[in-house]
Amino acid sequence: MLILRLILVLAALLLVLGAAMYIFTRNRRYLAFAWQVLRVTVLLLSVFALLFVLERYVLTGWRILL
Q1: Hey, which of 9, 25, 26, 27 has its CA 20 to 30 A from 57?
Q2: DSSP per-residue letters across the chain
Q3: How much is the pTM?
């Protein structure tokens, strides 16, 4: 869970930084960077959620069957 929190904090900081740089410079490159950070964060959260479901339900159910 510590890794998940670290990822969320870093992603939030990068999103705020990208949005602030876009506001100050009006360079769309920073907005694209913030969008990419958001997409990667959602992908990582999806992987963690899938692993959690796998551990919680599939492996526990497999242990019951054996």
Answers
A1: 9
A2: -HHHHHHHHHHHHHHHHHHHHHHHH--HHHHHHHHHHHHHHHHHHHHHHHHHHIIIIIIHHHHHH-
A3: 0.78
